[in-house]
């Protein structure tokens, strides 16, 4: 099939590349000429495991193509994916100006039947708005489909190629058949393609992300409570997670969720509720608790150093909002670092992928190290903010030798308490006995 993808951000690029991988001919459109040229030259603009291999293969096979011309993109595909940004407005709602702007062009420029697929995370009712905007100028037949993505950063290629489910929101039989044909190669294992109306599909995405954010936040509160009563959240997590109704995943407490999706989507759903006079009280609490959770290590650090953080030197392992990404949007590490800097502390950090992104934001305030162990030179304490695999089995002997105060504050519960304490290092983590 001929496919166009408008927008080559993380979702658009993964979608375009993976659709080319199953033999479709794909044209990806972006307004950023420099980025388009780089992609044409074989450069993948984002860090996403395995994407480079697929990108390279499909680019060379000429199934994956790039252009800055929206007109070319709109003429090309039988199916046109909109993978455009929906940034958070000042009031927490999703800004639809990119999506509706392109919809306006679609109406003016298409001259034969097209399926317009909304892949961006958009509020309930957006498909209807897109349809209305296209309809204003359309000279031919078209359908609008809501097809939310459930890709996790760091696993996006795998999630696209082997999805647990595909959600298609549409009221047009013709569009549904085309979408099913397109996705057939990805659901050979029998995972479902769930067809529903557009609004339900749009809400499915917000509901899924908000539920997961709530699950994590609930566990964070249980962890905080464990500390008060002397229980161990690791045990509680295992005890709960074996109940198949609860499930083992997304029960890991820590210093809060971050990233470009959960924080934005929870706020947007909360805001959309308000617009129809519905108060999502549970989401209000999730937003509030998560914000506090990002700096939950601070009181432990302050208590350890008797509230004297001025000129204390902290080594920080992990800056990205989670492992396997260089994304630092809403990263808990940065909130904690901000608080430590305010108290006059000095920070030396290491992250396998995210240091360049952080350097752009904090060039004068944070020192970066080439390796995790280099951060420890002259440091008083080690703080762990992201659970990169490389941090999971450190040489504790080396850590102890370098830290002047022999203490680790771990925001991701990476180690057995006993293992660390046997090394003669004090260890503070989340929801476990300190
Ligand atoms: C999330 C969803 O998992 C995807 O299904 C969805 O498609 C995507 O948002 C999106 O809307 O585009 P992502 O933001 O890449 O994916 O990251 P997750 O792996 O879900 O992690 C989100 C945050 O939750 C991270 O900060 C992570 O550290 C935190 N988390 C996750 C926990 O604190 N505890 C857990 O047990 C799991």
From TrEMBL:
Residues the record lists as binding substrate: 150-153, 205, 250-254, 258, 322
GO biological process, alphabetically ordered: polysaccharide biosynthetic process; UDP-glucuronate biosynthetic process
Keywords: NAD, Oxidoreductase
Pathway(s) per entry: Nucleotide-sugar biosynthesis; UDP-alpha-D-glucuronate biosynthesis; UDP-alpha-D-glucuronate from UDP-alpha-D-glucose: step 1/1
Stored InterPro entries: 6-PGluconate_DH-like_C_sf, NAD(P)-bd_dom_sf, UDP-Glc/GDP-Man, UDP-Glc/GDP-Man_DH_C, UDP-Glc/GDP-Man_DH_C_sf, UDP-Glc/GDP-Man_DH_dimer, UDP-Glc/GDP-Man_DH_N, UDPglc_DH_bac
Location of the active site: 261
Annotated coiled-coil segments of the chain: none
Record-level Gene Ontology MF annotations: NAD binding; UDP-glucose 6-dehydrogenase activity
Catalytic activity: UDP-alpha-D-glucose + 2 NAD(+) + H2O = UDP-alpha-D-glucuronate + 2 NADH + 3 H(+)
Catalytic activity, EC: 1.1.1.22
Origin superkingdom: Bacteria
Residues covered by the UDP-glucose/GDP-mannose dehydrogenase C-terminal domain: 315-417
Protein name: UDP-glucose 6-dehydrogenase
Organism: Aquimarina algicola
């Amino acid at each position: 099939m001929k496919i166009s993808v408008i927008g080559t951000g993380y979702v658009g690029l993964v979608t375009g590349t993976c659709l080319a991988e199953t033999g479709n001919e794909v044209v990806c459109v972006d307004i950023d000429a420099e980025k388009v040229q780089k992609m044409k030259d074989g450069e993948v603009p984002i860090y996403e495991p395995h994407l480079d291999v697929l990108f390279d293969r499909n680019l060379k096979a000429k199934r994956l193509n790039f252009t800055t011309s929206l007109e070319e993109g709109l003429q090309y595909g039988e199916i046109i994916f909109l993978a455009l940004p929906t940034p958070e407005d000042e009031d927490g709602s999703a800004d639809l100006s990119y999506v509706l702007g392109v919809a306006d062009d679609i109406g003016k420029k298409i001259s034969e039947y097209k399926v317009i697929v909304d892949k961006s995370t958009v509020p309930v009712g957006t498909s209807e708005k897109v349809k209305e905007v296209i309809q204003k100028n359309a000279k031919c037949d078209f359908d609008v489909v809501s097809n939310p993505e459930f890709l996790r950063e760091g696993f996006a290629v795998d999630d696209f190629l082997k999805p647990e489910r595909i959600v298609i929101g549409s009221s047009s039989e013709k569009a549904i058949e085309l979408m099913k044909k397109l996705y057939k190669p990805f659901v050979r294992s029998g995972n479902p393609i769930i067809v529903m109306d557009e609004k339900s599909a749009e809400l499915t995405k917000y509901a899924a992300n908000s539920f997961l954010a709530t699950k994590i936040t609930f566990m964070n509160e249980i962890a905080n409570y464990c500390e008060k009563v002397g229980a161990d959240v690791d045990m509680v997590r295992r005890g709960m997670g074996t109940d198949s109704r609860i499930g083992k995943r997304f029960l890991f407490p820590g210093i809060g969720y971050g990233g470009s999706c959960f924080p934005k989507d929870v706020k947007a759903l909360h805001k959309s509720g308000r617009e129809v006079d519905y108060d999502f009280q549970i989401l209000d609490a999730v937003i509030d608790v998560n914000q506090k959770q990002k700096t939950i290590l601070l009181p432990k650090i302050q208590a350890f150093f008797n509230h004297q953080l001025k000129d204390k030197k902290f080594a920080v392992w992990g800056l990205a909002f989670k492992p396997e990404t260089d994304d630092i949007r809403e990263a808990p590490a940065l909130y904690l670092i901000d608080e430590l800097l305010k108290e006059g502390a000095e920070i030396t950090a290491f992250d396998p992928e995210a240091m360049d992104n952080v350097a752009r934001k904090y060039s004068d305030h944070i020192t970066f190290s080439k390796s995790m162990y280099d951060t420890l030179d002259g440091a008083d304490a080690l703080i762990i903010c992201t659970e990169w695999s490389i941090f999971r089995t450190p040489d504790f002997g080396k850590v102890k030798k370098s830290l002047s105060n022999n203490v680790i504050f771990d925001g991701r519960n990476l180690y057995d308490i006993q293992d660390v304490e046997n090394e003669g290092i004090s260890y503070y983590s989340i929801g476990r006995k300190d």
